[in-house]
Amino acid sequence: MEHFYDGQIRRYILQFIRMMSNFSYVTGKNSKGQSETLQVPVKYGDMSRQVAQIIKKGSENTLIAAPQISCYITNVAYDRDRMLNPYHIDKKHIRERAIDPATGQYTGAPGQSHTIERIMPTPFQINFRADIFTTNTDQKLQILEQLLVLFNPALELQTTDNFLDWTSLSYVELTNVNYTSRAIPQGIADEIDVASLDFLTPIYLSPPAKLKKLGVIEKIIMSIFDEEAGEVDVDGILGESLLSRQNVTPGQYALLLLGNRITLLGEQKNNITTHASNRANKVFESQSQYGSKINWTKLEALYSKTIQNGISQIKLQQSATNVNGDDIIVEVTGTVSIDPQDDFTLLLDLDTDSVPTNTLDAVDAVINPLTFNPSSATVGTRYLITEDIGAKKNTDGKTASETDILSSDDDGTPSADTVPNFAEAWGTTIASANDIIQKDSAGNWARVFDADANTQLSDSTYTSVQYVTNTTTSVQYKWLPDAGYWVKSYEGFYEPGSWSIEF
Description:
The protein is mainly β and 503 residues long.
């Protein structure tokens, strides 16, 4: 942590001393029958052995000057009752007045703009004590009467006139009065009587604020003027070409999300544009199209910020089509933290409310129907299948003989294989890979989602994109009608520009 010191506690001490200053007392009459009004001096420091030695000038024969007031701190304690959100950051946008460089004076024109980020201060309580040293009772009563009448029960305190300082106002409350330090019976060795006043002041200690210059767009390097036509390209503003805009991520880094682990990938090694893209609803392809893994600290350096574990938030954007056929952007969010064992890995705590809503009832498992035995399945069980069952040319549902086979030719001729075959277990059901089938009350398997028609057969409602969750693994899948297969809904690759981090 870089050193900083703003003298915050020191300012409270100075303000308290000022509060105790400028009190006076009237002496007795001198030889001329006149009284004098003298000011009571105020010093900082408790009456320690060292301080007493200095005041006595190193001699036991020197009396302490009195009257005087000694102010000091007796305790500083954290005030939990006034604790607020420690991670809150308040932003203020301010604009200076311009300065004339010739005269060094402010002008009426606007100057530079800044953003002030104020971090939540820490609450404390300071206990002050004021010791009043007097030589006689009349002095004590004069000083106490002037002091005590002010605290009913407290005085407001202002440590700075900076309007951006949200901790400048406080108060000083009188909590206790110890009238005398003398014991009974009183001796004759100590001629100085001390009255002690205890005060309580709630304060805030502020960390340094961040001062940033506001960024201003000075130049747009883009032309919408069509030189050949000699006019502004209106279609470039309102037409389809607007869709060609480019989203940019610092460093042009991509992301790979697998499970809850996020890897930062370097810029593409080539100009291949058919790579994995959730934004474009394309298949997640090989990672080889991206550069090597990037340490997350490098991204922090680009932003000049630090990932706050469990606080920083990542946003992952996907394109989708709603039930009305409209193109929309689906944004999946969650908090992140750097893996303590691997700086190249970011751990995702997913916000489940941001996950796309399922359009289909959940499936119990994703299975290969040719190698999976459904005999133990109960009524209502739903499966997402990865292979065809039945034959469109053979309505009895038997694509294979009772021997072990995995697939058949178009004419229904079995091809030998050593993999156990359960094709017969599905009865007369005819379904294709990527279909969803469900066991009905009669014990038959009915197709409830037709991948070929992209239709929910229950109500024949057409939707371009479907979502379904596998209850066995809790993985959500997305149906891509253009591609004709299922992919994990939010896991996979994210292109530069399709993700962002809020530090």
